[in-house]
Amino acid sequence: MEFEKTELQKAEMEKRKFRRARLITQVKCDASGREAMAVSRDISAGGMFLNDPEPFPKNSIVTLAFRLSPTDPVMSCQGEVVYSIKGVGMGVMFTQVSPEIRQALENFVAESN
């Protein structure tokens, strides 16, 4: 069992296209007429992982609002839930991000690593 878990984690890491950076911040999520507050764990130019005991279902389209730091302006973008684990959280892939926000995300990740 441990071997399978390790192989799965390795495969997931290899699928990632973007470098990630640790980001712990509140994220407002809106989808399907429901609003939720989640806490991010990490972020990349392509998406983020959100800790949420009641995540949105896979394939949900979500609108996200968050800050990269307490003094930064609120960033808003749209994403799709690519995986959802009840009691844990969800992985969101950004689908609609302005060029300015994409650049800010790339800069944040580069400076964090």
Mind explaining what this structure looks like?
- The chain has 113 residues and is an alpha+beta fold.
- The chain contains 2 helices and 7 strands, in the order αβββββββα.
- It is globular.
- 27% of the residues are buried.
List the helices and strands in order. Answer: HEEEEEEEH
User: β content, as a range?
Assistant: 35-45%
Query: Structural class of the secondary structure composition?
Result: alpha+beta
The CATH architecture would be Beta Barrel
Enumerate the spans where pLDDT stays under 50 for 5 or more consecutive residues.
1-14
Number of helices: 2
Q: Mind telling me the CATH superfamily name? A: predicted glycosyltransferase like domains
- The residue-averaged pLDDT reads 87
The major β-sheet equals: 6 strands, antiparallel, barrel
Number of strands: 7
What is the fold-level CATH name, i.e. the topology?
Answer: Thrombin, subunit H
Oligomeric state as shown: single chain
Distance between the termini: 32 Å
Q: What is the CATH C-level name?
A: Mainly Beta
Task: Please bin the fraction of helical residues.
Answer: 10-25%
Total separate domains: 1
* C-alpha geometry: globular
For the largest beta sheet, what order do the strands appear in spatially? 2-3-4-7-6-5
